[in-house]
Each structure stands twice: as C-alpha cells, then as structure tokens.
Write a structure and sequence with these properties.
163 residues, 4-stranded parallel beta sheet, globular
Length: 163
C-alpha cells in the first residue's frame, strides 16, 4: 500500500494489530494515562532508542511497526520528523547522563545512504553533547542485504560500537 504522507503511514500503523514499538503507538492504549504534565522534565539520565520502521521486505513473523522502504519521500519525511522531535526534546530537556543509544527497526540500513547518515548524525550530535556511563556502547541494527560498504563505514565513523 502506498501512503501520501507520514501521517497516513502512522494512521495505518494504529490499525495494525501487531504493533509492538513505542512509536507510532496506538493512542487508545494510553488515553487513560494522558496528562498535560511533562513526566520527562526532571529526567536527566536516559537511554534513547530511535525506531526506523523501514524494511526491504516484511517478514511475516515480525511484530514491530515496519513498512516497505520503497518510498523515498516517505523515508526522508520520517527522518526529518525524527530530527525535529529530537531537536524539540533537547531544546526543553537536559540529558546529563546517557546510558544507551540504540537505532533499530525495522531495518535502519534499509534507508538510503544519505538518510542513514542523517540518522547517525542525529545520534552523534546527542552523544557529543552528553556524558556517558563507562560501558556506553551505542548500537545500530542492520541487515546484510541492505548494508553496503558506505553504510558500514558510516557506522564506525559515527562512533557506533555495536551493530
């Protein structure tokens, strides 16, 4: 199925009975817990996870939110939204200590090389401006079918130890 924009994609995910990730999630599952209070405002020690929901093919056994990676404009829009959300969070919250930073999916390496690099840039910007626990090891998931030499180089270049 083709989606005209990221909002349609998220709306489709909200109808998926096999939706197992924090974003996008089904709002009705959490409506009774909704509050206008920012429960993260005082949190300064975090582990972060970026969910990249794109895959080259959709495995029938996978319960995570994922979409075919064949729509370049959708992938690019998703990465732009991720950047905006991270920037917004960092402009209003302070991270003093980072325990972990993981990029998963889906298959992050299913992104085009420039999109993949943009996600790694977002992560590295956070890592460069925070303190880390001594055993901090950022990670990124990949699939050998979608990992090429350029993406492999980027993983190391951007400081990812585990892949």
């Amino acid at each position: 199925m083709q989606y005209n924009n990221i909002e349609e994609l998220f709306h489709a995910a909200s109808r998926d009975t096999c939706c197992n990730t924090s974003y996008p999630y089904r709002p009705q599952y959490f409506s009774e817990y909704h509050t206008d209070i920012d429960i993260m405002q005082e949190e300064t020690e975090l582990s972060l996870y970026f969910h990249i929901p794109f895959c080259k093919s959709l495995c029938r056994f996978c319960e995570y939110t994922r979409f075919l990676a064949d729509d370049q404009s959708l992938r690019r829009h998703y990465v732009e939204i991720l950047k905006k959300q991270v920037d917004t969070y960092l402009s209003t919250h302070r991270i003093k200590l980072l325990y972990g930073l993981d990029i998963g999916g889906g298959t992050p390496s299913a992104l085009a090389a420039d999109e993949f690099e943009k996600v790694l840039e977002i992560a590295r910007d956070i890592m460069d401006h925070t303190c880390h626990v001594p055993d901090f090891e950022p990670s990124v998931e990949f699939n050998y079918q979608t990992l090429d030499e350029k993406k492999a180089e980027l993983i190391g270049e951007y400081g990812f130890i585990r892949a």
